Amino acid sequence: MITRKLVKATLLGLWAVILAVWLVYGIQSRAVGTLVSEPEAPEAAETSANQDDYVGSESCKACHEDQFKGFSKTKHSQLAQLEDWKDKATGCESCHGPGRAHIEEADPTKIISFKDKSPKQISENCLSCHAGKEDHNQFRRSEHYRNNIGCTDCHSAHGATNHPTQVGSITYPAIDSEDNPGTAMTKMLKVSEPQLCLSCHQQAKAQFSQPFHHKVLEGQMNCSDCHNSHGGFEVKNARLSVGADAVCVKCHTDKQGPFVYEHLPITVEGCATCHNTHGSTNPKMLKRNQVRQLCLECHTEILQPDLAPGVPSFHRQDEARTQNCTVCHVRIHGSNTHPAFFR
Amino acid sequence: MEMHTGDGTMKCYFRKSAITGLVSAVGLMLILCTGLSAQEVSSTSGSSGSGGSSSAAKQDDEVNLTGGYEIKSSIEFGVRFRSLDGNEDKYRSDLNYKAGARLFNSSFFATAEESGGKPFDSILITSSGWGGDPNGYARVNVEKLGWYKFDTMLRRFKYYNHLVNIANGEHTQNTVHNMGDFNLTLLPQNRRVKFRAGFSYDDNEGPAHTTFDYQRDEFPILNDYSTKAYDFRFGVDLSFGGFNFSVTEGYRDFKENHRWFINGFEPGENPSPNSSLTSFERMMPIDGSTWYHKLTGHKYWEGVAEVSGRFIYSDTKTDFTFSEMITGLSSNGTPIVLDEYSASGDSSKPNGNGDIGVTFFLGDKVEISNTFGVTSYRISGGNVLFNSILLGMNPASTSEDSVWRFTDYERIMNTLEGSVDVNRFFNFYLGYRYTDRKVQLQGLDEDLQSPSSSSFFEEGENTTNAFLAGFQAKPFGKKWRINFDMEAGDGDNPFTRLSNNEYTQFRIKNHFAPTDDLSISVSFEAKDNSNPGLSVSDPSDILVADVKSTSFGAAFSYMPNGNVTVNGGYNYTYLNAETDIIIPTRNFGNGIGMSIYDLRNHYGYFDVWFRPHPKVSIFGAYRISKDTGEGDEFIGPSRTIIGSYPLSFQSPEVRGTFRLFRNVDWNIGYQYYNYDEKFDVPLFGGFVSQDYRAHLPYTSVTIYLGRRD
Fold first, then answer.
1. Per-residue pLDDT tens over the stretch A157-178
2. Is ipTM strictly over 0.95?
3. Which residues of B are less than 8 Å from A133 in CB distance?
4. Interchain CB contact of A65 with B (< 8 Å)
5. Domain ranges of chain A
6. How far apart are CA B382 and CA B403, in angstroms?
7. Which of B574, B550, B555 is nearest to A205 (CA)?
8. Residues of B in contact with A33 (CB under 8 A)
9. Nearest to A336 by CA among B213, B210, B284
């Protein structure tokens, strides 16, 4: 108990010190602008811009033909057609700022370039339009943002990347390509799901390749069915379903409840207490290969927690008959008629 | 064990579902492809005429337009064959691929050259796995800029589960699970208001087996499994004065309508008692509904702060009835003329979530964020259970009981974090998360015939403090990215021993792309969770649950030119869970033992694609998942359960594609699946091997529209 308090005090103390450093750093940063010198010209160009400084996307095409071709097929390029966006969307210059000085002086510093910007700085640009969307609202406090993964790490602002068509597995859909288009096209992703996510989350690929897994590699499910990659209020960027329930119950209807007799680990900890939600070598994607291990690891006679009682002595583990808990406790996710989940 | 087939209407339903899925995924695409290809015309993109383009670029800009749409499409259909050696139930539980004709992958993408006067600007239809595959899906995305956006996802899973290592192989399922999501957004690009509407369905039906404990004996029983859910939702997004709001109203209706029964005499599986069943019939329809309401808000003060908030309230209610009729013999051999149960009851779960997140920007390099959330729900449910049992010639004995259970859960979570962009090559963050959870359980049991009652009240509270930290570094600019993050937490009084208590976890990820053709990723992840508890019988005994896991992964992707691609990767997962448990035994009673679970999983994959000739493509892949577990140590010392499960699962694959015409490819391929367990599963005194080897050759044709040379 003393150790725990000591750890807490240390953490809080450490936090206070860091907070003080941050504040000083922030004030200093604001006072001097930026601590690390970076080209200032684009920002200067942006702030001093007037309508005459905008030249239109067609002017960019001469030198940036590949980007223009991709971009001209995106919704970004067509926004200016809409009355609602006429004052805001100006093609390439919506993000890169006015291009007249850049073209006339052939000076690469006279245009906003994202090559030397950090993912967060790039994301700021995207969020100036996209932040108001419900799915994006919490992006600045998401796991990805926290780890400096920005919008253009997954999205291609100039339109989906055209990958060459390759034949691949018959069971795992290949990435989107020019001849085999998919959702990467409509969402302007660099690569389609799940390959996009798995390029960083390698462990998940191994989990989805286990004998028991959710059908993500097969294309029936997407990572974004269960996770909001733009962040949310749940840990691990998890989504909710049916209002405030776990995302699992959207498909696993019979687990939704509420039941008269709830099984507490599901109620308070969630499905991932017993299941590996990506995949497992064990049937039913369980965390242990013998169900009794999962049960006995909680239902043993310990003072804490009080909420999981020990098992009666007639559940003899040296007899095969009583080793399979769910033979009798069949409604282990919750029951309306039996306190021990028999029916 | 043979699955029972349920009634005839269910079979019809399955056929109907399959036909519906096939029509929606294939029919629409084939009609569009074939119909439009007949009138395919060539024209030049209207925007390609500006000066400065090279002649090569002009040629590249030329697109085939059909009715004003540029179409790119591919559809692959063919036949799969199957040869299986080994345990078919295990094969079907894992893979369930059957022989026969099927639609493999397909996609149809049409984009309007000019938006005006057309019903849609773009339509995308993709599908896979229809016809005979166990898992099929079809996606449809249609959009007209400024007017609407419509997204559909249809899924069908043929779920088969018959494994001897779950409930002695008696919990099986052979169901078809159909799901659909339809989402429509009106005025999707409007900056002030958008309207949303959505509908989802979920339908899971089919025959199953389960078990029932009766008179201290276990009986296998049949189950017609049936669940349905329908979800309706609509919402509006509003922006005014720099504030963004979203309001969503939703309603979900869900039903369970299972039936349990036996078809004849069942002697039971426990040889000791004399109990048996001659008839068994149970119905327990559950009718549930959820109303949910969600409000989110967002405001950004440029360069100063950002706030987002969310409030969700949902209220779920269920009503159920229960009836069960049993005849047979009791455990002491007395004839059970009729054992009849009936019950009715309901339950409810009002649930409220409130969250708010705020970020302050201190300059353009420092951010401080705080996210605070409250979750609260109360589950309340009760039933009145009536039982009448008529044994032999004795008068019927009856009982009538009423129960009520209540669960109150409340969670407060606050995360304070700050991040610093030192420069564009290095940034770091630090954070602190505090969580407090409280659970109250209450119950009241009443005997309604001889009025008496008992009640209970339990309460638990859990507080967790966690420290977060991480950084991202780019030693060589964008070519090399290193991400590190860690979390160390300390909790008290955890609700379950498997939950986080005293834990640390960290991970480091490397992404290295020295050239545009080559990328290499390496990652490492470690978790340690220790959860001590004190024995009830002897509080001086500390019973520890300790779970350690590490994972190492490496992958590479190499595409030296447009004719060759090579990918490979390896992942090693180590997990060791050792938990002190109380194990009851016949001869020695309860005593302290240990539960050990070991995972030593090696996963490797390697695939290569190359084009030796402009008209020939070859793809080859090898994947293996091999868990060595704890070697041969299956039987531990007394009172030790070892959950080691050595197995290997291999799936090599090869495929050749030959371009017959500009728009037609012929494919031929072969897949092999090999599942190998290192020990057989004990079942009723014998052993059952679950190994299998499956050979799946196939041939197919792919037709393209809008394919480029």
1. 888 777 777 788 888 877 788 7
2. no
3. 237, 244
4. yes
5. 54-113, 119-164+171-238, 245-335
6. 5
7. B555
8. 363
9. B284
